[in-house]
User: Fold these one by one.
Assistant:
Number 1:
Amino acid sequence: FNGTANYSPEIEITVSGNLQKSYTLNQNYPNPFNPITVISYSLPDLQRATLKIYDLTGKEVFTLVDELKPAGNFSVAFDATKFRSGEYFYILKAGNFSQTKKMVLVK
């Protein structure tokens, strides 16, 4: 990623008011992807949530979400046009919950 100021690789797409009983972090779809993928997650109650992308070395390369979120289902699109092909990890943290999933960018 070259740090272009007006490049925004995230677009929040969906919020559902359905009440959740647990945290979930779903596998991105499609996976492998080129260059856009969607990551979905659920929160059981009002939480500060972060969803961050990391490269294979563990370096944080982008923050998709970092805000207070109500209970519900959420989806965010990640546009990796400016990123190199390879494996990446995404981590959802909210309250005491933390989960990691792997995704593959193929160009």
Number 2:
Amino acid sequence: MSKSLVLQSWNINGIRAAVRKGFTDYLKKEKPDVIGLQEIKISEEARLATEFDFGGYVEHWHSAKKPGYSGTAVLVKNGIAHTALPKLAWDDEGRIQAIDMGKYIFLNIYFPNASNDGLKRLAFKMQWNEKLLNYLKQLEKKKPLVITGDYNVAHEEIDLARPKENTQSPGFTPEERTWMTKFLKTGYVDTWREANPKKVQYTWWSQRGGARSRNVGWRIDYFCVSQKFLKQTTKPAILDQVMGSDHCPVSLIVSS
């Protein structure tokens, strides 16, 4: 008999800040089976020196070499069979985690930001995206993929409140959008947009100018899955009423 799991993803903008803002209470209330976190902003040393109350979960952490920067974590509910795959040698910013869930591989990813400072990391991001895609294609030879996280790109104009003003903003450049189209055409499905072709809903809001209260946002957090695995997924959702970060969580139910 197949078992359905609630998968979630959330860029928490700092694990210590998120805990202060109620992340532990969120976990206890929502009880996701698996949750991928991005931008944990904590070094391995600092994490080991900090006590987090994530009772009931197995924790997998991947901190960046640069302290207080980037990084990811995955929490898996106790009793759910899984295996964390080895970290990638070239991923020194702690951006990629892969968890073998048995019938599929769960990937928690924090894509680079092209940078507000003159798009100075755009070239880096494009190269990084290609290395990631090669890795995904190797993994997919073994099992279908569920690829979640902060992609740091709004794919189409419907995915942000002010597209015309942002054509050269990080996350909406032609280069980033073209790559996202390429990514999807290689066999992946944006589950939320597939289920909601014309709906406007966002996952990130600038912390300036009351953007969230006015819902001037971007949809840059995704659950994408291998095309052949789409039928195993239901109820993609954007939990935009959840506070605690400049992003909100996204979720997906997966059966296998």
Number 3:
Amino acid sequence: MRNSRKLKKLRNKAAEGQLGRCYYCREPMWDEDPRAFGERFSLSLAEALRYRCTAEHLHEKCKGGADEERNIVAACDFCNRTRHLAKRPKDAASFAKYVQSRMKRGKWHPVRLERQRAPLR
């Protein structure tokens, strides 16, 4: 239990530093209320769930990555899961480049959010 609180604190700090945007896709994320987030961006609940804020280990835990501030970023659930579903997951920097190239072509998230400058909470 204690470790999950620490991870949540690290995730929240990372999300704050990232202005509430995913480390990989740079889209806004939600932490508390998916329905309000969905209403704000005209998304269904299923679509909004993709943007849930998660703690992402830059260096995977299974490969020795620690729950430390320098190793934790905030990523949307979709980016976090997608990175780790691959048979050979890319390192964080390579995955970020991959996601951004897909975003530029409109081939990452099925629904693009209207970009806003204010951080989300």
Number 4:
Amino acid sequence: MKQLIVLLIAGFSALSTTAQTKVKNYTEDKDLSRWVLDLNGMGGGYSQQFTMANTAPNYLNGLNINTGNATFVNGSAFGGDLQLGVFFGKNKHLGLGTGILYLRESGDMKLNGFHAEYQSVDRNGNIFRQVVSANNITEQIKSDNFNIPLLLKYKNRFSKHWGFTADAGALFNISMKNAYTTNASFDYEAIYKFDATSEGGNRAIYETSLIPANTDFLITRNQFTKNNPNGSVQQYFDEKNAEGYNVGLGVSPKQQKGSTSYATGSVGFLFQPSINYFFSDHVALNVGGYFLVQPFKNDATNTYTLTGKPGEYNPVINSVSKVQTQSYGGNIGLRFFLGRKSAPLHISGTDPNAPSYCGQCDGSIVFHGLDAGKQA
């Protein structure tokens, strides 16, 4: 019997020696607090792919309508997120997180090639054909983008100072407000067609022919320079505008700043991987990247026109019907492990027992420091 006890003690000693060779010099994920608070700063590029509403039919009796080609350039995004996460399971590698994510997104929306001819009424009450051409338009867009993320979180600490984490999941948009500043300017020209009345006079009617008749009255740049090669076209247009005609060259909008909001409720996607540097079991530095994509819709009404009369302006961004936005870049922040970490399993002592103590068994060993039924 003594030989059996000696064998049991020797076996335990060998097991203990083997276990000690596997002891790690850092606190593993399973022993860290399951609750974490992540605070990250984010910054990088930003892009938009959008669909413009067909606004050509909104111009009354339109002719030669070209609503232009719109592009988005010079995009950038800066902001951050605050997340509360909880990890579960034996090893606490997987968890869920939520919080708030904010990005200040900016870029330039450019519109080239706008031209429209449509029926209008001047300040004297006469019907005529308004001819509008736009110089290249740029709207500087600054967007405030607020979201609630719902993320699956993964973490794995693999040494005393280093670990890896990755978050991925849905972004629920709660606000997307776009502020714009425009440099837009337009050339407003006019074509008048006259028809004899029964009273022997003339009345203005809409010229429906693409090519104006020789009898039409044209207030256009080409017509003036053809007949007055040395004259001041700008002065001529200013004089005609003063007479009540809706004309002008290089006319800027009366309202050059404003804002518009995209429809809320869109659901996007966020992926955010990071390398962790642990200062302690309670604080770690996050350094990594992020990628997010979000779709939005906008109510481009069937009455929208870029401009009507001199000085009027509706921003290009209001003609967007739907848009897919992307933001991508780097993130840096801190992870805080909230609450107490779990105490690691520790064998404080052993008691080998002879068969006479345990009855019919061949002997036993009592481990001090382990909970009954709990796996090490």
